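for the recovery benchmark. tokens below, seq after
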């Protein structure tokens, strides 16, 4: 691989050349699925698709549990707002000693539900604009 690999403490950066980006367009995801597990193949296929389109990809791992601060950061909300969602039962949390922890899967599921509600609301707005003949 002719990519530039820069390894630092706890972080590795892989930079691909423009030739490698153009080669990504010829990528065959079916062949990859025959070599690696399907879930990993899906992730790698998405990475190649984004790189082929000229995008940037950051891959990292997430712990199974999140602190309230890291969960709030992931959701793009304040910690007090997160705690309100926990009290209202919109996101499940549990105590570890005196500290509140959230399962990463629960936080990501909430984020998916939130995004779906936003998509529905946007579509309803578009439908309303179409019905009213509004054209911007």
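predicted aa per position
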């Amino acid at each position: 691989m002719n990519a530039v690999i820069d390894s630092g403490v706890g972080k590795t950066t892989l930079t691909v050349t423009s030739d490698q980006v153009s080669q990504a367009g010829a990528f065959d995801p079916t062949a990859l699925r025959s070599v690696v597990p399907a879930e990993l193949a899906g992730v790698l296929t998405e990475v190649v698709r984004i790189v082929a389109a000229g995008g940037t990809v950051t891959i990292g791992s997430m712990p199974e549990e999140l602190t309230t601060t890291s969960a709030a950061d992931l959701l793009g909300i304040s910690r007090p707002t997160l705690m309100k969602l926990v009290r209202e039962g919109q996101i499940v949390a549990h105590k570890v000693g005196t500290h509140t922890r959230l399962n990463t899967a629960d936080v990501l599921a909430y984020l998916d539900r939130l995004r779906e509600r936003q998509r529905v609301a946007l579509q309803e707005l578009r439908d309303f604009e179409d019905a009213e003949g509004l054209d911007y």
